[in-house]
Amino acid sequence: MFQDCWKGTGFYGAASLNDVGLMGVMNFAFIEGKYNGSTFTILGRNSMFQMVREMAVIRGSGLFRFARGYVQASTHSWDFRTGDATVQYDVYVLL
């Protein structure tokens, strides 16, 4: 529904010794439409080889000021050589 009206920034750090498990923090900022200027933040462990990973929505701003919820992330493609990935984020938020 919001495919082209947001931008995401964040970082990942190693969070596992035995697999590709990453600790991630991401901010999703809406840049147009009804939610323009609003953001929400996700935090959690992202195990890249699991089909679907779940992470928490921990806060927001603007229309998402008291947001809580979760994100389900699914990797569609991953280039091991460059590290580039295409990931779908399905977000479920309570306001």
From TrEMBL:
Gene Ontology cellular-component annotations: apoplast
Domain of life of the native organism: Eukaryota
Among the record's GO biological process terms, what is one? phenylpropanoid biosynthetic process
Where exactly are the transmembrane stretches of this chain?
A: none
Alphabetically list the UniProt keywords: Apoplast, Secreted
* Keyword Acetylation included in the entry's annotation: no
Places the protein is found:
Secreted, Extracellular space, Apoplast
Q: What does this protein do?
A: Dirigent proteins impart stereoselectivity on the phenoxy radical-coupling reaction, yielding optically active lignans from two molecules of coniferyl alcohol in the biosynthesis of lignans, flavonolignans, and alkaloids and thus plays a central role in plant secondary metabolism.
Record family assignment: Belongs to the plant dirigent protein family.
Query: Self-association or partners: how does it assemble?
Result: Homodimer.
Name of this chain's protein:
Dirigent protein
Species assigned in the record: Solanum lycopersicum
Organism taxonomic ancestry: Eukaryota, Viridiplantae, Streptophyta, Embryophyta, Tracheophyta
